[in-house]
Structure to design on (409 residues):
């Protein structure tokens, strides 16, 4: 079999395109497959699909294709142009590549699969033997393609959450479909405007379809939800994990203050116990459990605060709003009589937004899905590496977590 014939077959080239010539460049480790079409071939105007005679050809171009036996393989062709009576002289679309791409469709599909599998641009580009810009371009084009094809679907259960792009600063806000665990919208910052910018990426029908939305207790997100989602007040569920996190932080604050006081009197019974108070009992080793029991029995403020925090967990174990409310009222009365200022502050914060906390009994959503997604995003950030700016970070989130149809066809 001639190499021309071989390449014609393995490239899967369709009529009217055929292989003219196969060139092996040993030094650069490349194979160049030159292809052309018979002169009488007709092509379509890319604007109106009108079939027209070939007018002339553009400059010869290279498209990177899948390697053949480790040789970087390129298709080489002069793209045909047509003269449309309506649209003028236009470059016709070639069947092996998307307009504007320097890769064939097969190469791009492979690159996308590889980027998804390795979850790193760096890893993928080494296997593909492309540079960072070329590889990143595949990601960008895939996301643009996916967004273009994205169908507008109802989003009955949403979560909204912030994510730090750089440590502790520079946030992005994510809107997550909790049923599909996909990122539906991203905006810069973590303000009311950021949240509204996310909501504005949904259609009116989608906003109307929202039945429940999970969020932390930040006033910014509450305000935005009320501005963008009809009857939001009934649909907001403050995420239980965020609420418990606040309670945990209060316990930690109390422990730190008390430890300081005790150390001043030479008592180090709270020293090095942070982990014991913040970790679920079920996750402590036997030795840690024993230590915990001993400190807990010492009747310290920290122990008392910890007890109230543990009790608060039951808030989410009620079947009805009225039961949950009765439980909280009782918890609140008891906490408010203590001298545990940080915990009292948490109690007041919860009380203020109580209906949206215990809405959980009816709507049963949490941002836990979004949190899982967030850890995925964080690991992508670590592994993809080299994000030059926030726009790239957002693009990567959509590439890996957008649930988009990314492949060219
Ligand atoms: Zn036309």
């Amino acid at each position: 079999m001639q190499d021309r014939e071989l390449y014609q077959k393995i490239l899967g080239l369709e009529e009217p395109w055929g292989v003219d010539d196969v060139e092996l460049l040993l030094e650069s480790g490349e194979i160049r497959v030159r292809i052309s079409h018979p002169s009488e071939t007709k092509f379509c105007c890319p604007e109106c699909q009108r079939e027209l005679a070939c007018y002339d050809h553009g400059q010869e171009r290279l498209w990177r294709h899948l390697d053949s036996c480790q040789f970087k393989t390129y298709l080489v062709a002069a793209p045909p142009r047509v003269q449309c009576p309506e649209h003028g002289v236009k470059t016709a679309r070639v069947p092996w590549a998307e307009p504007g791409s320097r890769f064939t469709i097969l190469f791009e599909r492979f690159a996308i699969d590889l980027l998804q599998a390795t979850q790193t641009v760096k890893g993928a580009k080494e296997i593909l033997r492309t540079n960072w810009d070329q590889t990143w371009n595949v990601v960008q084009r895939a996301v643009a393609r996916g967004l273009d094809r994205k169908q507008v679907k109802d989003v009955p259960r949403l979560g909204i959450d912030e994510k730090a792009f750089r440590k502790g600063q520079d946030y992005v806000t994510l809107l997550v479909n909790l049923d599909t665990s996909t990122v539906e919208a991203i905006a810069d910052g973590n303000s009311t405007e950021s949240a509204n910018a996310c909501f504005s990426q949904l259609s009116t029908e989608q906003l109307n379809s929202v039945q429940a939305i999970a969020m932390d207790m930040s006033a910014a997100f509450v305000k935005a939800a009320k501005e963008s989602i009809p009857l939001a007040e009934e649909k907001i569920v403050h995420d239980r994990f965020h609420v418990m996190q606040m309670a945990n932080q209060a316990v930690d604050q109390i422990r730190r203050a008390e430890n300081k006081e005790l150390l001043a009197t030479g008592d180090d019974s709270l020293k090095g116990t942070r982990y014991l108070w913040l970790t679920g009992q079920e996750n402590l080793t036997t030795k840690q459990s024993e230590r915990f029991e001993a400190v807990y029995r010492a009747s310290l403020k920290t122990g008392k605060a910890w007890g109230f925090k543990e009790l608060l967990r039951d808030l989410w174990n009620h079947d009805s709003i009225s039961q949950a409310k009765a439980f909280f009222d009782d918890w609140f009365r008891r906490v408010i009589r203590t001298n545990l200022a940080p915990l009292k502050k948490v109690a007041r914060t919860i009380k203020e937004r109580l209906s949206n906390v215990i809405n959980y009994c009816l709507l049963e959503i949490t941002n836990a899905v979004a949190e899982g997604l967030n850890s995925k995003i964080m690991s992508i950030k670590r592994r993809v590496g080299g994000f030059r700016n926030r726009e790239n970070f957002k693009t990567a989130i959509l590439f890996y977590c957008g649930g988009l149809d990314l492949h060219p066809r």
Summary: The two ends are 30 Å apart (CA to CA).
